Amino acid sequence: MLGFTFSHWRRQPWRLALIMGAFLLSTLADVLTPFYSGRLVDAVASGAGTDEVAWNVAMLAFSILMALALAGVVLRNAAFLWIDRACGQARQRA
After folding, report:
1. What is the tens place of the pLDDT at every residue in 46-66?
2. CA–CA gap between residue 87 and residue 66 (Å, rounded)
3. Separation between Cα atoms, residue 89 and residue 94, nearest integer Å
């Protein structure tokens, strides 16, 4: 079984690289989330409601957080979709 799996992935190195890259970038988005959450908290705590610079920093941090969340979800779901398609092709060959 393991031999079949390795030989299957060996025939599709581009797909394996794509899946691994998507998971890596998704994990990177998850790792960066606390950093930008901290920036958002710092900006709000410093008075983002009254200071325009703090408000801009808070909005930038919030926008980056939303982009990271979206990227993480999209990349993770794309990777699982690519795994499902690869398994479907393997089932057809077997």
Report:
1. 876 778 888 898 899 999 999
2. 32
3. 9
